[in-house]
Structures are given as C-alpha cells and as structure tokens.
Amino acid sequence: MTSTLSRPAQPAPVGRLVDQFERGLDAPICLTWELTYACNLACVHCLSSSGKRDPRELSTQQCKAIIDELQRMQVFYVNIGGGEPTVRSDFWELVDYATSHQVGVKFSTNGLRITPDVAQRLAASDYVDVQISLDGATAEVNDAVRGPGSFDMAVRALENLHEAGFQDAKISVVVTRENVSQLDEFKALADRYGATLRITRLRPSGRGADVWDDLHPLPSQQRELYDWLVANGNGVLTGDSFFHLSAYGEALPGLNLCGAGRVVCLIDPVGDVYACPFAIHENFLAGNILSDGGFAEIWKNSDLFTQLREPTGGGACASCNHYDACRGGCMAAKFFTGLPMDGPDPECVQGHGEHLLAGERDKPTANKDHSRGIPLTLMTRVPDSWQPPTAAPSKACDENPLAGFTGAR
Ligand code: SF4
Ligand code: SF4
After folding, report:
1. 160-180 pLDDT tens trace
2. What is the DSSP string of 375-404?
3. For residue 333, which atom of ligand 1 is closest to its CA?
4. pTM to 2 decimals?
C-alpha cells in the first residue's frame, strides 16, 4: 500500500492516524470483492451463504469497469473471494486485467483449481497472492466444517504451490471451538509449505449464524487464543480480527476499531456494496455499483458510510475500562447474534456478552442465501494463454490496516 491511501477524506487535525481512519479515507484499504456465490463446497460457516451462482452476477465487462474505477481511486489491492472465485470462467482474465491496471490481487480459494500448472504460473508472478482456506489441521476437524475431501484438496494446493516455488502463500483459518487447540499444528503446516498462517474470527454471518452457538470458541479458549497470539503473533496474520481480545490486556497489533465503511468494505457478485464482508444484510447495504453511480460515489457519499464514519459514544461500553482497547467489539457479531449495536460484543472478554446471549434475543434473518443441497462440480479451465503479471504486490492489510503508515499506534 502506498502513502496515497493515507489521505483522509476530510481535513483532520494532527493526531493519531487511527482517529483519521475512523473518519474514513478516500479509498478503502481492505476491499473484499466476492466475484461469485457459486462454490463447489458448502462449508457450514460460510459467511456469504454461498453455493449457487446468482443469475445477476456481474459480467466480465462490468467487472473490468469496476477495476478501471478502482485504478482511478488508487485502490492498489483487492481481496478476491466468493463463493469459490476460480469457478468463474473469466477468473484468470479478471486477475490479469486487475494486475495490469495496478490493482494487486489476493484471492481466497479452497484449492480447487490450484493444479501444478496453475501453481507454476502463479509462482512466476509477484503481483498475485493466494490464500488457501483450511479450518482444521487434520482432515477430521477440517472436513467436519468444510466437507469431505476438502482437507486433501487444500493440502494438495499448498503442495503444488510449494513445489512450484510460490513464495509465501497464506493458509487462512477461521478459529473455532474445534480447532483452537490446533494453532501450533496450523503453524507447523504453514512452515512446512513455506506459507504464512492467517487466522480470523468466526462471525455469525451467513450460514455461520446457524452454527455460531456451537462453534465459537468458549471463554477459556478465547483466553487461550489471546495468549497464543501474544506469544506467537509476530509471524501470524489476523486481519485485525481479534481486537475484542485486546481487552485482556496488551493490545494486539492492528487498528483496534471496527473498520466497516471506514477502511473496509465488500463488493458482492451483483455489485452491491456492503460495509463489511461479514455484514451481508440489507441494514449494511450502502448501494449498488450499477444503479447508484459507481463504487467511488458509494464509498465517498453513501448515507450508510457517512453515518458509520461519525464518532460513536460507546453506548453501554463507554464506561468500561477496556473501551479504548476493544471499542465494544464487532458490529457484525453483535448484529447477527441479535445483541444491541451499542452494547458489548457477544464474546466480550468481561463476560457481558454471555449474559446478554442468555437473555431474549431477536436474531435477524438472512436476506441473501445462495446455499444449495448438492455439491457442484464446476470444471472451468484456466486458459493456456493466461500468464500472471510480475510487478510487485501490495499486501498491507494482511496483518494490519495501518501497515506502512508511520506513526500508527
Ligand atoms: S463489523 Fe466486525 S468484522 Fe466487520 S469491520 Fe467491523 S469489526 Fe471488523
Ligand atoms: S464491556 Fe464492551 S468495551 Fe468492555 S470489554 Fe466488553 S465489549 Fe469490550
């Protein structure tokens, strides 16, 4: 990420960068773009309830027009996901188009298309980063969540990338009650393949809402996770995911605030723009790129994003001694568990969330669900002509949205 992204949307007095980020930037630092809702798997915790392709999915030309706009906005890097993005027949064409227009790509995949041949081509590029999803360090734990055969598929992709000489792939793990005891094993797996471990928080979004009660880490495991991050966090990416755990004491690296609509947002497969990848719900819909004047207009001027950039008083958390560290936690986690938005996080380390979860709750129903019953076998092929570009990537928000900004707290 270069310094051009550090310009605040409004003039700000000299102060902490985190305060400027709260007011929003000219362009998002962490932009996630879900290219399709189609997926060959049916993971029980899928945040976008993926499975079936939406017939209104953006066309190749519409996607390229968005990339053009991202280039004009100087968005140097986009996280591409889905669904399984590589099942789009134009996926490699879009990757190529983005990187040749100075928009770096990191894509998340379950490993489906990472054949030895594709791995060779990816290894020739410094502008494309690959993130393989894995939710268990063993097939038993992983496949219970992601489906039979998914562990072997992901490990095969890692092997192919490693053998092709691909540098620094990511292994992306959603931390659950079942795999939190495997953090050392995940790290060893990453080391074995020359990869970097990235762990993120389980959110009750999409199908995750159905399994969150059973899968989210228990309070004792949250402490275990925090201690592990403090001891091992230097070589592990978190996407600023666990800032609610900072209330245990030492702040974890990152912004330690909810970046939704400020530095983070999501473009979905039909061009809808949401405040955050974990908030796919009409309440967090800022607009549609096709019908509301384009991405820049929505990012800069939508009512929702304007509102999210307003200072918040802290609500019920304002009097908490840990508010500076935790800021009341994750907006999406509160919303999808049916807790008040101005109250504590459902996984509040002070135990306030547990108390609220035990009471009456009105959980919102998902208004987008692309789940299907039968796994798809989608056999789109990588065109032989596709060659990855070789310019240098920018991957600043892997670890910390403040990465690269001097003076960050
Ligand atoms: S809603 Fe939660 S996941 Fe989304 S940006 Fe805010 S804190 Fe992060
Ligand atoms: S009460 Fe609120 S601010 Fe305090 S630790 Fe819990 S969620 Fe964080």
Report:
1. 999 999 999 999 999 999 999
2. ---------TT-----SPP--GGGT-TTTT
3. 2
4. 0.87
